[in-house]
Write a structure and sequence with these properties.
single chain, 239 residues, mainly alpha, Arc Repressor Mutant, subunit A, Tetracycline Repressor, domain 2, 3 domains, 11 helices, 74% helix, 0% strand
Length: 239
């Protein structure tokens, strides 16, 4: 039997994921078996386990696939350099949600499952939530270098926070029953605008500088008064 190429393996893997999602949506997660998925894909009953050990892993794989496709679509977007930071983040979110749209019912149900059984699924879904950190970090760095936003020592933390914000947007979107998800659109517009204004103001760096000033000032004051020495001596005698 000829060896299957990596490209063909990836094609089969993606077909398994998308077929599983369709069947989960139609029959329900519990009512769908790995054997049924394998036969619908057209592979052997045992072959599917070479790709995924169980149905839970298929849920994780779906979110990973959507995240990967989102990143690739975003990177391949034309004239991206002409967009502002807010427009780039808006585009990233739009692509993300649009990729979920064909399977919105499954997304809603699977998120409920994840929340109800975190010990089973949350540890697998967590890495997917970090998929956008590098992309966002690059966007923030570029915006800092161009002077669009103020430079900050916490760019990495801001990227992770923005990545968590995207998850919050997804959770809001799956519960949005407004016409054409207008509430989600409005929420994203307002929250992104506020976030960008905060980044432009440099308030994070200013708050950090202020905190650093007080820490240093009081630290030197305590050192000059012998407070730290007394504290260390008292601690030593208490051991």
């Amino acid at each position: 039997m000829a060896k299957i190429s990596k490209k063909k393996q990836e094609e089969i893997r993606q077909k398994i994921i998308l077929t599983a999602v369709d069947m989960f949506s139609e029959k329900g997660f519990d009512a769908t078996t790995m054997k049924q998925i394998a036969r619908e894909v057209g592979i052997g009953d045992a072959t599917i386990y070479k790709y995924f050990p169980n149905k839970d892993k298929l849920i994780y794989a779906y979110y990973a696939l959507v995240a990967d496709n989102t990143v690739q679509q975003f990177i391949n977007e034309k004239e991206l350099d002409d967009y502002s930071l807010q427009e780039k983040l808006q585009l990233l979110i739009d692509i993300y949600l649009n990729n979920f749209l064909p399977n919105r019912e499954f997304v809603t149900d699977s998120i409920k499952m994840i929340m109800q059984s975190p010990s089973i699924l949350f540890k697998d879904v967590t890495p997917v939530r970090e998929e956008f950190v590098d992309v966002i970090h690059n966007l923030l760095t570029e915006a800092e270098q161009s002077g669009e936003i103020s430079s900050s020592p916490f760019t990495g933390a801001t990227a992770k926070l923005t990545n968590e914000y995207m998850l919050a947007v997804l959770l809001y979107w799956v519960n949005d029953d407004s016409d054409e998800f207008s509430n989600t659109t409005q929420m994203v517009d307002m929250s992104l605008a506020l976030g960008i204004e905060i980044l432009k103001s440099g308030i994070v760096s200013k708050a950090t500088d202020l905190a650093g000033f007080f820490i240093k000032a009081h630290l030197f004051k305590f050192m000059g008064s012998g407070f730290l020495n007394k504290l260390l001596i008292n601690k030593a005698f208490s051991l």
